[in-house]
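User: Please fill in residues for this 196-position structure.
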């Protein structure tokens, strides 16, 4: 009985395909495009007419531990418990979750007459089905949410400076990680002064 031989080229091709499938999920590309109304959009999926955006390495800040016995009202939305109850999977409790605002960058100026702002978040490890993202605008929870996606559109914002922060929470409301606060300046056209 003869054993079929595998050519060296076949092994190299198989190895290259394997490496491409392993590396693909690690690369999180961000795309930017402008629609017919002049609205700027960001997404992690390609779109017709979209340009890739170089967001560089995200700013990652370790989450702060919550003091034992902290009042749950201290949480941003008044619900949930930041403390680890000690129940559940030990591996999940050991995971170091990180969340960062990848776009817009800190001190960015966004022009939108409808008060819309596109947030692109970087969550590591990847966002799972039992996790939610709470967005804080100027220290208060955004009126919509919590969100299950890392591509979030905020709308109805007033012109001016806004401080943005994202909280990663599990389905029980426990905060797993907090992003650094990012300041964004929202500009809108003035009816009185057309050039502003």
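Assistant: Residues filled in for all 196 positions:
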């Amino acid at each position: 009985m003869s054993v079929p031989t595998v050519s060296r080229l076949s092994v190299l091709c198989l190895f290259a395909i394997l490496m491409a499938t392993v590396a693909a999920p690690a690369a999180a590309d961000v795309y930017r495009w402008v629609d017919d109304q002049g609205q700027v959009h960001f997404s992690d999926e390609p779109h017709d007419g979209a340009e890739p955006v170089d967001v560089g390495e995200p700013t990652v800040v370790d989450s702060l531990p919550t003091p034992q016995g902290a009042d749950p009202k201290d949480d941003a939305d008044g619900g949930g418990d930041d403390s680890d109850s000690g129940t559940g999977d030990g591996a999940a409790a050991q995971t170091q979750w990180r969340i960062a605002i990848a776009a817009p960058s800190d001190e960015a100026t966004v022009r939108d007459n409808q008060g819309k702002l596109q947030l692109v978040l970087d969550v590591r490890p990847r966002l799972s089905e039992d996790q939610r993202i709470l967005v804080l605008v100027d220290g208060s929870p955004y009126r919509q949410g919590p969100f299950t996606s890392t591509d979030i559109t905020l709308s109805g914002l007033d012109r001016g400076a806004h401080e943005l922060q994202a909280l990663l929470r599990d389905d029980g409301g426990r905060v797993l990680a907090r992003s650094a606060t990012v300041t964004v300046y929202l500009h809108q056209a003035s009816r009185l002064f057309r050039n502003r």
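For context: Residues 67-88 have pLDDT under 50 and may be disordered.
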